Amino acid sequence: MMETVHTHGVWMAEALQKGTIEYEKLWLFVTHMGDPKAAFLLHFPMVYYVNRRTGIAVVWVAAISEWLNLVFKWMLFGERPFWWVGESRLFIENPPQVQQFPATCETGPGSPSGHAMVTGGVWWVMASALASFLRSRTRSRLLTAVPYLLYLLVMVAVGLSRIFILAHFPHQVVTGSLTGFALGVALNHTVPEWRPLMFFVRWCMGLLVGALLLHVGLEHLGVDLSWSIALAKRWCSQSEWIRLDTAPFSSLTRDCGAMLGLGLAQFWKPGGWTLPWVPRALCLALSSLALYHVNRVPLPTSPPFLFYSLYFIRFALLPQVVMVFVPGFVHLLTAKNKKD
């Protein structure tokens, strides 16, 4: 049955590539915007300076959703189209006319889609917050429905982009989207806006230790959790497209770092700074610039433990930049101007 599902998924990817290849740059942009890293680097600062609680919710939902996605991938052993086409040996006589892209060759298992799952959770938080705002201000059902229609459009676009680049089969996108939606609805009611630092330390350690224990347990049972990495390296058309930041442990260290960083940011400055809209816009510009350069800093990939440690620190710093450093700097500037 899964062979049939995978086969039809490959033909769908082929049809999508043939029919929309002129929109290649658009698909690559959409898949980039759906990357779990984008939740921390792009969506978080944009939302935080509009509404503090929703910004915190973005980090909270992104971290837990991506962690659960890692656990599901370890347990479900999902194939990816770009390697399954070669491994299955079903297309020797009639190979599909498909191509790979720089974002294709992710090294983790494919089921469910992490892009769809994290996007489903994070964008639900943002869409529901905007819908609540519009409902309270306009009382218009039509305007209130707009954020939810945008949510559906984003989910469809991200899902199709993942199929287009051969990163996922359609059923992996669907399951990831539905799971992300459910997590977004559930976790949006448990946003840790005023929690103490130890709450985040415990969550950080719980995510890290829980994943490591599961990894050790599965390895002890004879499960080879590096199987997908070997297949990705074997079937990726360009070796330089294999990146360590797509490995399963990269998502784990990213989520744990962001969780600890969120706690530290609220510990240093509980409640944050109250800034008018113009200083907030300045904060957004400075934060975006800072996160862009922080993310561009190259990290050594050998030994892997050093990379993961530095990757953890990088994402632990992100909430500090957005919630503490930049707003504090802008607050000092605006306070000085008022005094003058």
Walk me through this protein's architecture.
This is Glucose-6-phosphatase. Pathway: Carbohydrate biosynthesis; gluconeogenesis. It is found in: Endoplasmic reticulum membrane. It is a single chain. With 340 residues, the chain is an all-alpha fold. The protein has one domain. It is 74% helix and 0% strand. It is built from 13 helices and no strands. Helix 3 runs antiparallel to helix 12. The protein is globular. It starts with a helix and ends with a helix.
What's the gist of this structure?
The chain has helices at 2-20, 24-33, 36-48, 52-76, 81-88, 114-138, 141-164, 170-187, 197-220, 227-235, 248-268, 277-296, 304-339. It is mainly α and 340 residues long. It has one domain (2-339).
Itemize the secondary structure elements and their pairings.
Elements: H1 2-20, H2 24-33, H3 36-48, H4 52-76, H5 81-88, H6 114-138, H7 141-164, H8 170-187, H9 197-220, H10 227-235, H11 248-268, H12 277-296, H13 304-339
Helix pairs in contact: 2-7, 3-4, 3-6, 3-12, 3-13, 4-6, 4-8, 4-9, 4-11, 5-10, 6-7, 6-8, 7-8, 9-11, 11-13, 12-13
The number of domains is: 1
Estimated structural class:
mainly alpha
Silhouette:
globular
- Please provide the ordered H/E string of secondary-structure elements: HHHHHHHHHHHHH
- Cα end-to-end separation: 73 Å
